[in-house]
Design a protein that fits this description.
This protein has 394 residues and is an alpha/beta fold. The chain contains 14 helices and twelve strands. The chain folds into two domains: 13-255, Type I PLP-dependent aspartate aminotransferase-like (Major domain) (Aspartate Aminotransferase, domain 2); 259-393, Aspartate Aminotransferase, domain 1 (Alpha-Beta Complex), CATH 3.90.1150.10. The protein has helices at 13-19, 61-73, 85-93, 110-122, 135-141, 164-173, 188-191, 226-239, 245-255, 258-277, 296-302, 318-327, 357-363, 379-393, and strands spanning 78-82, 101-105, 126-130, 146-152, 179-183, 201-205, 219-223, 282-286, 309-314, 332-333, 343-345, 369-373. The longest helix is centred in the C-terminal third of the chain and has 20 residues, at 258-277. The protein is globular and about 70 Å long. The structure holds ligand P1T.
Amino acid sequence: MAEQGFLKQKPGFATIAIHHAQEPEKWNSAAVVTPIVTSTTFKQPAPGEHTGFEYGRSGNPTRNVLEECLAALDGGRHGFTFSSGLGATTTLLGLLKAGDHILSGDDVYGGTNRLFRNVAAAMNIETTFADFTKPEEVDKAIKENTKLVWLETPTNPNLKIADLATISKIIKNHGQHIIIVVDNTFLTPYLQRPLDFGADIVVYSLTKYMNGHSDVIMGATVINDDELATRLRFLQNAMGAVPSPFDCYMVNRSLKTLALRMEQHKKSALVIAEWLEKHPKVTKVLHPGLKSHPQHELAKKQMSGHSGVFSFKHSGGLQESRKFLSSLKVFTLAESLGGYESLAELPSVMTHASVPEPQRVELGITDSLIRLSVGLEDTEDLIQDLEQAFSASF
Ligand code: P1T
């Protein structure tokens, strides 16, 4: 249903999440619920021959179900899972070689920034960061050796929106072969489908909304292009950052309620964002669903609503942030996002502490910027919790 002018939700999402690749007939037992296959190796009829599986790193029946379901949810042909979101990103670095250049959005998860600036740099792969809210900046920053463009939209933690269709067009107009990667962790395919707007690869930290219960660390990529998928399948096996069958079972189970959970995260977070916007101690709320968001109109064109994660700025400093976060009783002070429980954190000293200070200052990741992940508790309880924390700290 199109709500508040956002893009219409893709039909059949929940049905795909529940049934795609889950046919009971594929198992001898006709199990309705995907079994957890723990075997690390599979009997072969003859040397060099196999019946679909040979070794658990290169493929596992439980993992395959999850990967196929993930691909279908994004409208892609191929899904790959990894031991973490950063494990997925690290594996993508295997597509590049020394001398290549990455162009990344400037406001990305701190761990992604650290991976590019430290690990990729040590492999002689250079990264430059640009403000992707300005497509002309992207155009200018592309170099002859640019091989990969990395986007988060909305960004972590400033909730900036990049125009996926325009940026994809600009990159493709350059004529050189550049892989466009979109980290869709904040929205999930329920709220945004980057492949529809020209992305080549969608990346997830499944640790967040896709699993949604804060009990699995996992990552994924979804791809349409067969040749790129062949390269990724090779790298998944050759680099070896694969998840366990038990964790694959957990994430596959969680996908069954993704649509329901995202609806509630979306609704509750917007009510809380609107409440915060009127609060006397709040100076700014960064939530793409608010009319005050500078890219609200763009958000409506490429998203089917916003999730439960957003940030706000208050009139105090580090001391007030510390007191506020320690005073919360329903929200838990912790890193991460996207679980059923509400979390709050201070990016400047937590998730984004590894971003060099000058870059943090430039991006406005100050000590008065607080990030919330609105969970599935009663909205009214969450508002009361925020109110008592404001009273305790200002
Ligand atoms: O934690 P891991 O599963 O490795 O995922 C890394 C990652 C990738 N992309 C985005 C947008 C992310 O937010 C993350 C992880 N983020 C946090 C832990 C956090 O609190 O922001």
